[in-house]
Amino acid sequence: MLAVARQALAEECLATGKGDLFRCLEMTLDGEATADDRASLARRLAMKPVALRVAIHRLRQRYAALVRAEVRDTLALDGGASGADLAALECAEFEVLRRALG
Question: 5 near 15, Cβ under 8 Å?
Answer without folding.
Answer: no
